[in-house]
């Protein structure tokens, strides 16, 4: 089992899906965890239910608000004192047709970029300033296979573009901060068995049709991603820093 008893880990988007699985997996590692939620704080509280009360904390912040990421970091740092690992999992996947109105196009693009890119960059910036005073730290970004291959549906262009921008930023941090004991990784899932993938599969003939297009005929269990996060958070694979780790059941091999 991974031992993270000396680590404090901030996980964004922890109330459901991949984030929920990550927090629940970390319960067995001894880590202290800060679980972020926005509209579903009860989900985050359920995620940390098995932690001792002094080793888990829930913070609520709206990453669609330009000031939300800063408030999230301040709450987390106030509770924890020191944060060793930041897991950037929170994201939205809005759909927008290319021939939609200009007003709706602008609104959806701004929302996707705010939540999936700008808020993440704020947290990265805050984390780097914090790590500078604590001999380094680790950033794990939850990316997507769409950052390499593009989305299979044009109405997810906002999601694909925003996720790709954040992936480029994390790769840049890995290169430029390696000599400061900052490790940065990207996990690029394919289709994960969450509500977000259910939304995507609706555009492709439904769940069964969607599964037929996958090499294993099944989506990635969120628990497998959580296992990978716990390994990266441990610091035992330092020289993977900068890597993008594909996890898609052989449906996209590059």
Automatic annotation (TrEMBL):
UniProt keyword annotations, A-Z:
Oxidoreductase
Judged by the first EC level, this protein's enzyme class is oxidoreductase
For this chain, the family text in UniProt reads: Belongs to the short-chain dehydrogenases/reductases (SDR) family.
Q: Which organism is it from?
A: Microbacterium lemovicicum
Superkingdom is Bacteria
Q: Name the EC number(s).
A: 1.1.1.100
Per its record, how is this protein called by name? Answer: 3-oxoacyl-[acyl-carrier-protein] reductase FabG
Pfam families listed in its UniProt record: adh_short_C2
Annotated Gene Ontology MF terms?
Answer: 3-oxoacyl-[acyl-carrier-protein] reductase (NADPH) activity
């Amino acid at each position: 089992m991974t031992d993270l008893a000396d680590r404090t880990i901030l996980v964004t988007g922890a109330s459901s899906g991949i984030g929920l699985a990550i927090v629940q997996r970390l319960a067995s590692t001894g880590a202290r965890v800060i679980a972020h939620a926005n509209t579903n704080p009860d989900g985050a509280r359920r995620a940390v239910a098995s932690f001792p009360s002094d080793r888990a904390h829930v913070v609520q912040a709206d990453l669609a608000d330009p000031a939300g990421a800063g408030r999230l970091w301040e709450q987390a740092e106030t509770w924890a004192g020191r944060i060793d690992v930041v897991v950037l999992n929170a994201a939205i996947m809005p759909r927008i047709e290319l021939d939609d109105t200009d007003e709706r196009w602008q609104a959806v693009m701004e929302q996707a970029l705010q939540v999936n890119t700008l808020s993440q960059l704020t947290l990265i910036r805050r984390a780097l300033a914090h790590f500078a005073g604590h001999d380094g730290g680790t950033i794990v970004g939850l990316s997507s296979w769409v950052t390499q291959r593009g989305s299979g549906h044009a109405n997810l262009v906002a999601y694909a573009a925003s996720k790709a921008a954040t992936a480029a930023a994390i790769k840049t941090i890995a290169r430029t901060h390696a000599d400061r004991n900052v490790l940065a990784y990207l996990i690029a899932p394919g289709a994960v068995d969450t509500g977000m993938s259910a939304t995507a599969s609706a555009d492709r003939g439904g769940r069964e049709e969607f599964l037929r297009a996958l090499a294993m005929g099944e989506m990635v269990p969120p628990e497998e991603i959580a296992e990978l996060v716990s390994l990266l958070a441990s610091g035992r694979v330092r020289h993977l820093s900068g890597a993008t780790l594909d996890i898609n059941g052989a449906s996209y091999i590059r």
